[in-house]
Amino acid sequence: MTGFSTMLRVTATALLIAAAASGVRAQQAPLQDKPFAEHKIVLQLSDNDPRKQGLVLSVASNLMKHYDPDKVAIEVVAFGPGIDLLRPENPNRKMVESLVAQGARFDICLNTLDTLEREAGKRPEFIAAATPVQVGVAQILFLTENGYTLVRP
């Protein structure tokens, strides 16, 4: 029975690993539904510098103006201090919401929110226009593996 119990343990471990891996993928935002997009860009925002936030928003806005919004898929991934762009009190909130209305997507890293909640004892609020993803950097990797160009303004 030793061989059988070892086989059971190996199978159980494999199932747990598969379940954990599929759970991570389930928390990833799916690719945008933009069948006519000729250009796909992911913008990384990982710091809380207001100038950097403005630059990311400017790049996204300029791309929307340069290309037809249906011809470009833009995804901003905010993690670490970069999530401050997606807080309700951020002065750029209206610009973010305007870009979302034009078809851009703004992802917020749940790992960052979890860390801030552990440190402060309260979960930070974020705007409804933000799309939660489990791991911001994993979302960037997923997008680049699916044809997006990474830009770090």
UniProtKB/TrEMBL annotation:
Keyword terms: Signal
Family matches, as Gene3D superfamilies: DsrEFH-like
Signal sequence extent: 1-26
Keyword Signal in annotation: yes
Domain of life of the source: Bacteria
Name by which UniProt lists this protein: DsrE family protein
